[in-house]
Design goal:
Blueprint lengths: L1 E4 L2 H14 L2 E5 L2 E2 L6 E2 L22 E6 L7 E5 L2 E5 L9 E4 L2 E3 L3 E3 L1 E4 L5 H17 L1 E3 L2 E3 L1 H8 L3 E3 L15
Parallel strand pairs: 1-13, 10-14
Antiparallel strand pairs: 1-11, 2-4, 2-5, 3-7, 5-8, 6-7, 8-11, 9-10, 12-13
Length: 177
């Protein structure tokens, strides 16, 4: 897993680098009423990438399955309160990785994102490694996080870079001098 702080603009070069090496699609992880899926063929086209987050916790950030274009994504049928839904996750999609972009919450908070996988498939691990390599190439490392250029400027200008708005500020990302 790799954790990062980034604006949507910071992530564009990451996507461009990865997508120059691999032909990908992104599928929103969600519970749907229908098994019909929407795919995005560029990270820059993710509809939530530049939207403010509606929840102050990084764990609730919009999340997407990353897969090769030819990989079939299988919705998993689940029942919630006696109603059928279709879940999009890694459980039945081993050859994927998970991407959460994090983003802005409120006036001065930037929540972290991540790329991870729960799968041990070689394809899944390659997807995660390729994204991690691109993030490391384009971002600076501050403590345990990789930080995009614009996110780094926000940090220097007093923004909170944190995992949750409600967490104490002493847990926020800070430069160690």
């Amino acid at each position: 897993m790799i954790l990062f702080y980034a604006t949507g603009e910071d992530l564009i070069p990451v996507f461009e680098t990865v997508e120059s090496k691999l032909s990908l699609k992104y599928t929103s992880c969600s519970h749907l009423e229908s098994p019909e899926l929407d795919y995005f063929y560029s990270g820059a086209d993710l509809p939530t990438l530049n939207e403010p987050l509606s929840n102050g916790s990084a764990i609730n950030s919009p999340t997407y399955l990353i897969s090769r274009r030819e990989t079939e994504i299988k919705p998993r049928e689940i029942t919630i309160h006696r109603k059928a839904f279709f879940s999009i996750d890694q459980l039945d999609n081993a050859d994927t990785a998970v991407f959460s972009h994090g983003g802005f919450y409120g006036e001065s908070v930037l929540l972290h994102g991540r790329v991870a996988t729960a799968s041990k498939s070689e394809t899944s691990l390659k997807l995660q490694r390729t994204f991690a390599s691109s993030i490391k190439k384009h971002f600076s490392k501050i403590q345990a996080f990789y930080v995009g250029c614009r996110a780094e400027k926000l940090l220097d200008n007093g923004y909170r870079l944190t995992f949750a708005d409600q967490s104490p500020q002493n847990y926020d990302l800070k430069r160690i001098i």
